[in-house]
Every structure is written in structure tokens, then in C-alpha cells.
């Protein structure tokens, strides 16, 4: 059992006992959070210290999807092995996970962060600004179990902030929007206040959008290498850290990530939950229930485009993302069926061999 002192210590890195009521911690092991992920292993945090750790092979290999492997933000039970090495032996069930389709042609899934309350979608108000990409991130976040927040950085360099704000409100109704100078603590105060003690947020967005700058400002320290620093010191140690969880002074935790070159959907997303309520609502007004919004008469979606109420680019985005979800979902299903088929074949073979052995 965890003592009140354990819980108090672990709360610094976002532990909430209500998430895992009656958690049984075996003797000699302790709860910890994965705060960094490297090629060769992990760094875990026990509330007071960080430790280098490995994970049991079972946790990496005997999983349905790669996204179930230990990742930053995961809570685990760890123990010290005879050789002195720290080992991740169990993962606690996740209450949320941000997952994307792995880059490339594979149908694999990759977890970006686990046990997060917020996903901060970071977009620079410069050439990075792209409504279609924000929509894509919102769709990805919709399946995570975490809440999205839009962070528009480089507001200090833009003269058109109100226009940008209005545009993102259209594609993300009800989603909080913060336009900030990521280098200024004052400018980020409202964003910082929205991350409550005990909560965990993860930053996502293109490389150069200002995620590490924002991390440093929220931390009040130069903890994460930013673009500017990286340029001057070449390949510093920090640049090898792909993802890192940091406790913030206000009591929340923040996970910085490298820019995702590809934001691939997994097939588990639902456009109706992803800020596309406007189009989803229109579809219910189409004359035909199976309207594809192409040439059908009485199509409310096309009518909205004609009347200038719906941006045709947004409609195209909705179609594209919808098709991608359907395709990814179909691929995932086939993968599961193939596995089930393989498992059934293996069992049949074992049965035959067993019968032969008996003869
Ligand atoms: N003026 C200004 N520059 C910013 C802002 N946010 C980031 N930058 C600059 O943009 C560059 C990339 O920032 P960085 O935090 O490394 O981006 P990351 O790849 O998302 O982590 C750096 O030179 C930052 O100083 C901002 O809000 N205003
Ligand atoms: Mg960075
Ligand atoms: Zn229609």
C-alpha cells in the first residue's frame, strides 16, 4: 500500500491515487513515472529522483500494438534487480494516450504520450500556420481521451492575431485558444494557469513552432534545448532526448516532443468528436441519408458551400480525413484478423502434432 507520504511525493509528477484505487504495490517495487524515452532505455521519476531504467521484454513485445509499449507519461511499477539495474516491471492502466499512425507505410501505431489531460497543439503565426494541419491534430486528439488546447505562438511577430483567432475558432468551436509570445512569461500566464496542479499536458506541433521555447518559459528555466541553442552548440546532449516530461512550478507536468513530420491517423478517430460538428450537423439535413455530398439533390453540405457558410477547403479536409480514418480502420481490422488466423493455424498445427505424438 502507498503511504500518504508516498502519495504526496508522487503528486509532484502528476500522480492521482483516485485513478488507480486500491493499487497494490508488491514489496521491493515502487510506482514511478516514465519521464524520458531513449533508444537504449528509459528515465523514470519516483517523485524525488530520476533513475535510468530498462523495461521487461514482455512489456515491449507481447503487445497487440506498438502503442502499448511503455512511453513517456506512463505510470509503472519498477524494482531494482540484483545487478543494481532498475527495471520497469508493470505498466499501470492508462487513462489517456495520444496515438498516431507510425510514419511510413506500416500500419503500426505509436504512442506519443500517456496519461495526459491536455494536448497543446502548437502552431506558429508565421509560415507554420495551417488550418488543415490543425484540423488533423484535432482529429488525432479526439481519440486520445485528453482535451485539446490551441496555442498560437509568435503572436509578437504577427499583426493579424484577431483574424487568426477567428479562423481557428471556426474549425475548433469551443476549444480554448491562446495566442502567445512563447518567449514571454507574462504572455503565457493565462496558458500556464489553465494547466492545473496534478494535470499533465503534452505539446505537439511542427518543428520550429516554439514547443521547447514554451516549455522553457513555463518551466522558468532553460531546461529543453530550443532551436536557437541547438544552432549554436551543435548536437548537445538535450537534442538526443526525444520526449521529456517536466514538473512545472505551478504543479502541472509538461511533455515536450520533437516535431512530428507526419501526423497519421490510426482509424480509431471520430470526426463528429473532432471539431467537425458543423459539417456533421449539416449532413443530417441532406435529403438522402446516405448522401455523399457530391451530386445528390437536396444536399445541405453543398448548399452551405454555395451560400458561403462552409469553406470548401474545410469540406475537402473533412472528406480526406474521413477517408483516411476509414482506410486505417480497415487496415487495423485486417491486421487483427490476420493475427487471429495465424493464431488459429498455429493451434491447429499444435493439435495435429500432439495427436501424432500420442500415436
Ligand atoms: N518571436 C518569437 N520567437 C519564437 C516564439 N516561439 C518560438 N520562437 C523561436 O522559434 C525558434 C524555434 O523554437 P523551438 O522552441 O526550438 O521550436 P520547437 O521545434 O517547436 O521546439 C526559436 O528560435 C525560438 O526562439 C515566439 O512566440 N515568438
Ligand atoms: Mg523542440
Ligand atoms: Zn449531402
Share of helix among residues? 25-40%
Principal-axes geometry comes out as flat
What is the number of domains?
3
Sequence of strands across the biggest β-sheet: 10-9-8-11-13-12
Taking all residues together, what is the mean pLDDT?
89
The structure class reads: alpha/beta
Q: Output the CATH topology of the largest domain.
A: Rossmann fold
The Rg value, from CA coordinates, equals 23 Å
> What is the first-to-last residue Cα distance?
53 Å
Question: How would you sum up this structure, described in words?
Answer:
The chain has 359 residues and is an alpha/beta fold. The protein has 3 domains: 4-91, OB fold (Dihydrolipoamide Acetyltransferase, E2P); 97-256, Rossmann fold; 271-333, Probable gtpase engc, domain 3 (Ribonucleotide Reductase Protein R1, domain 1, Orthogonal Bundle), CATH 1.10.40.50. It has helices spanning 4-10, 57-61, 131-142, 161-171, 189-194, 211-219, 227-233, 277-283, 300-306, 312-358; strands at residues 29-37, 42-45, 50-55, 75-80, 86-91, 97-101, 109-114, 118-124, 147-153, 177-179, 200-205, 244-247, 253-256. It has a 6-stranded mixed sheet, with helices on both faces. It has a 5-stranded mixed beta barrel with strand order 1-2-3-5-4. The protein has a two-stranded antiparallel sheet with strand order 6-7. Strand 2 and strand 3 (50-55) form a beta hairpin. It is flat and about 70 Å long. The termini are far apart. 36% of the residues are buried. Mean pLDDT is 89; it is low at 228-240. Residues 153-154, 156-157, 181-183, 205, 207-213, 226-228, 259 line the site of guanosine-5'-diphosphate (GDP). Residues 283, 286, 291, 293, 296, 299-301 line the site of zinc ion.
Amino acid at each position: 500500500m502507498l503511504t500518504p507520504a508516498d502519495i504526496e511525493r508522487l503528486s509532484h509528477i502528476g500522480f492521482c491515487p483516485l485513478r488507480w484505487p486500491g493499487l497494490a504495490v508488491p514489496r521491493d517495487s515502487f510506482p514511478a513515472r516514465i519521464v524520458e524515452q531513449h533508444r537504449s532505455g528509459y528515465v523514470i521519476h519516483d517523485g524525488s529522483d530520476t533513475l535510468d531504467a530498462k523495461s521487461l521484454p514482455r512489456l515491449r513485445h507481447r503487445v497487440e500494438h506498438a502503442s502499448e509499449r511503455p512511453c513517456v507519461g506512463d505510470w509503472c511499477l519498477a524494482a531494482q534487480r540484483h545487478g543494481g539495474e532498475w527495471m520497469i516491471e508493470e505498466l499501470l492502466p492508462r487513462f489517456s494516450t495520444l496515438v498516431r499512425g507510425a510514419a511510413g507505410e506500416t500500419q503500426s501505431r505509436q504512442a506519443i504520450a500517456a496519461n495526459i489531460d491536455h494536448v497543446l497543439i502548437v502552431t506558429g503565426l508565421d509560415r507554420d500556420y495551417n488550418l488543415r494541419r490543425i484540423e488533423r491534430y484535432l482529429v488525432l486528439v479526439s481519440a486520445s481521451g485528453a482535451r485539446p488546447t490551441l496555442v498560437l505562438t509568435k503572436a509578437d511577430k504577427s499583426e493579424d492575431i484577431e483574424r487568426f483567432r477567428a479562423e481557428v475558432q471556426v474549425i475548433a468551436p469551443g476549444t480554448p485558444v491562446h495566442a502567445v509570445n512563447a518567449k514571454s512569461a507574462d504572455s503565457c500566464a493565462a496558458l500556464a494557469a489553465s494547466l492545473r496542479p496534478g494535470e499533465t499536458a503534452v505539446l505537439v506541433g511542427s518543428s520550429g513552432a516554439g514547443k521547447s521555447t514554451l516549455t522553457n518559459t513555463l518551466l522558468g528555466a532553460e531546461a529543453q534545448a530550443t532551436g536557437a541553442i541547438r544552432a549554436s552548440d551543435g548536437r548537445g546532449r538535450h537534442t538526443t532526448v526525444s520526449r521529456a516530461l517536466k514538473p512545472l512550478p505551478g504543479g502541472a507536468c509538461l511533455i515536450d516532443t520533437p516535431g512530428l513530420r507526419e501526423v497519421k491517423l490510426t482509424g480509431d478517430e471520430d470526426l463528429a468528436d473532432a471539431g467537425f460538428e458543423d459539417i456533421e450537423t449539416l449532413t443530417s439535413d441532406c435529403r438522402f441519408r446516405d448522401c455523399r455530398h457530391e451530386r445528390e439533390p437536396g444536399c445541405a453540405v453543398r448548399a452551405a458551400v454555395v451560400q458561403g457558410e462552409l469553406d470548401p477547403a474545410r469540406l475537402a479536409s473533412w472528406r480526406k480525413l474521413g477517408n483516411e480514418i476509414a482506410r486505417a480502420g480497415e487496415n487495423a481490422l485486417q491486421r487483427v484478423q490476420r493475427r487471429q488466423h495465424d493464431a488459429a493455424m498455429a493451434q491447429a498445427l499444435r493439435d495435429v502434432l500432439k495427436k501424432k505424438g500420442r500415436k
